[in-house]
Design a protein that fits this description.
alpha/beta, Alpha-Beta Plaits, 4 domains, five-stranded mixed β-sheet, 26 strands, binds iron/sulfur cluster, binds FE2/S2 (inorganic) cluster
Length: about 625
Amino acid sequence: MTPINIMEEKVRITVDGKELEVPKGKTVLQVALERGINIPYFCYHPKLKIIGACRMCIAYNEKTGRLFTTCNTPVEDGMVISTKHPTVVENQRYLLQALMTRHPLDCPICDKAGECDLQNYGAIYGPKRQIVPISALEKDRNGVDWESDFLEYYSNRCVVCYRCTRACSDVVGANALYVEERGFHTNIAPAEKPFDTSSCEMCGLCVYVCPVGAIISKPFKYWTRSWLLQRGKTACNLCPLGCEIQVEYGLGDWRSERRVYRTKPTDELHICAKAFFGYDVLSSNRLLYPVMYGREETVGGMINLLVNILKSKPQETAIILSNFTGNEVLDIIHALVKSTGCYISSTLTLDFLKFLEGYGNYEQISFEEFKNAGAYVLVGDDITSTVPVLSYYMRGRVYSLYGERTRDKKLNPVYISWKELFHLKEEALVVVNTTGLEDARAWGEKLRGYKVYPIHYGANFWGVYERFKGVLSDLPALMSAIVEGRVKNLILFGEDLLDYYEPLELKGIFDNLEKLILFTPFDDGLSHMAHVKIPMNLYGEANSSLTSLMGKVELRGFLPWRFREEDFYQDLLSVLPKEEKHVPMLKGEGEFKKPELHLYWSNWIIRRSKNLKRLYEKQVSLRT
Ligand code: SF4
Ligand code: SF4
Ligand code: SF4
Ligand code: FES
């Protein structure tokens, strides 16, 4: 079939004397920004509904002789616009002056300084001297205490653009903020206090979209200045969505401590509490170089040790994968397993694989299809806590076949029976959180014939599944083989095991090993049990990819203290035997702990975050 060529309809407009051909259907502000024409604005954001509230984005229509707001005016053929007309300039000045009369001039102590739209517009478009004689001390408005240890609102700095409330309601669906009072007294207020235990998900989107320093993150407050920070973009590897985020860090020079200061989303507005407040894990008790029996070891020494064990005793050696490892490292582990014939396992064998075994042939559903589903049926533990940003996209009708789940309450699910599910068969997408799902195989069998979207909390669970399905030993059977002394050497990646087994239980099992070689980002936790430990990179450190729910996403390594793992793995690959061996498999079921999937406490990486721990403890104290 010949592909249909859909031509984008164009219109011609003139902006500041320049004729432009632009797509019909867009607004004047959108096309101006795309063409690099500067128009200042506060309330517009490319991912938020347009409301035309701030009046900052004005331009002059030469044909009608009127000012208009560009963010909510669609382009029309023949329009002649001026962004620099004297009336525009005068009104921009007037508006900025009006905003400044109640704005404290506290840029030296405001966290937004250096990246604040009011500060920048003030310098470019504002009056050059104070027109209204009001002293800074008289600018007080009634403040609103959000009663939060994490977010703070400065009413005097607010330009009332409603970006925060729109992000919270329309993107996150948390409805944690509302607009209080009107006119000069307008404030942004929390729907519930104290805020840290309210419906707020601590995603930080309100902080990010606020064009001024009216909402700030308290853990970041006063630590540094925005212009002192270095920044890089990477996928987040704290859950399987792999959102693109920005990581801001200090280099450890005279201006800033060597650590990560904050994370932000991009304008896609994909971020959740795990990344927004959990950035402190990147600077927390890190293992930065290989250690063997308590002493720093060279990379070459580690490679020799690994190859010796794997070549000489493959039947006594096993690897347990981490579902938080990037694809390129997984590829090398795959080559390692194939060339030596050792055992390989993953926590996925406890739940996710069981579900798929029960379900039968499964074809992965794309993120686009997920977003466009008309109805969702929830199965398994809280999806909002497990893959928070996924919940931002469940905008159809939501049902649940499972008991009440904490954060998913914001989706207002209707509880249904199997019989009712049958009537939804054609339209519903059954979203199954397989993490720790009891009777996972039985769920899979019962859902055969339904369109399902299985998820797991591990950031790269699809990457592990794609590469290792068909060779993974059941984890309980491997644990028994260690206890019985049949497997004596364990090469363990990450601490996924701690989400499924109690530390003491693991210690009892590992005591039977001759060698425990641990790849870990942290110099605590399981690393106290390991004979040998090798660094494992986190986001902002690894140069790798994840097979995320959104497709393939890139992890980019730029943090200065990162371990050069790509060199390590390339060297390891170069000394591996080239022939392929049979990979043995162990079968057997056993007991395991159900991982806790709390928004602030859902995996072994973010449990190191002091910020998230405080939030978690606040929530738990509510329950007791
Ligand atoms: S942090 Fe997120 S959930 Fe909380 S108020 Fe801000 S936008 Fe809403
Ligand atoms: S707090 Fe910030 S984002 Fe919210 S209305 Fe005020 S200025 Fe806008
Ligand atoms: S939803 Fe997942 S990938 Fe996105 S920011 Fe949160 S933890 Fe990271
Ligand atoms: S950006 Fe147009 S009115 Fe605010």
